[in-house]
Amino acid sequence: RGYMFFDSYNGFNFRFTLVPILVGIGFVTVFGLILYRVVLSAQQYKRNNDSPVLTVDAKVVAKRTDVSEYRHANMTNNTMDTAYSTTYYYVTFEVQSGDRMEFHVQNEEYGMLAEGDLGKLTFQGTRYQGFSRGV
């Protein structure tokens, strides 16, 4: 009788009442977060489409990479094996007003750009369109 609270509560089995509620809350939370990210992405996509395509004088001031490594467990010898990795490339440009903008670029473009390069930056909202060296 000392564990009555955990075994039953008003004639209901407490575990079979609480666990489905917690699972449901977890499901709704995860689904809500996914839906939130989809809505944010759609809004950014629309803002980019509504923005004019601009070409401005700019200078490459910084470059960086972001490597995401995806691992999985090797059940044979209890070690972590790298399944694969993805590298994202970013370039920061400074325009004549002194403002800086960072854009995600493709790896080929990243390799062709060097810090200090001067040229024309073309972009639409947060979308990188290209960079032509020489002014």
Secondary structure: number of strands: 5
Strand coverage percent: 35-45%
The largest beta-sheet arranges its strands as: 3-2-1-4-5
Order of helices and strands: HHEEEHEE
User: Roughly what is the average pLDDT, rounded to an integer?
Assistant: 86
Envelope shape: flat
**Major β-sheet profile:** 5 strands, antiparallel
Low-confidence stretches: none
As a percent range, the share of helical residues equals 25-40%
Structural class: alpha+beta
N-C termini distance: 85 Å
Rg, nearest Å:
26 Å
Count of DSSP-assigned helices: 3
What does this structure look like?
The chain is an alpha+beta fold and 135 residues long. It contains three helices and five strands. It has helices at residues 4-7, 14-50, 107-112, and strands at 53-74, 79-95, 100-105, 118-124, 127-133. A five-stranded antiparallel sheet has the order 3-2-1-4-5. The radius of gyration is 26 Å and the shape is flat. The protein starts with a helix and ends with a strand. The mean pLDDT is 86.
Could you provide a short overview of the structure?
The protein has 135 residues and is of the alpha+beta class. The chain contains three helices and five strands, in the order ααβββαββ. Strand 1 (53-74) and strand 2 (79-95) form a beta hairpin.
List its traits.
single chain, 135 residues, alpha+beta
Blueprint of the fold:
Blueprint: H1 4-7, H2 14-50, E1 53-74, E2 79-95, E3 100-105, H3 107-112, E4 118-124, E5 127-133
Antiparallel strand pairs: 1-2, 1-4, 2-3, 4-5
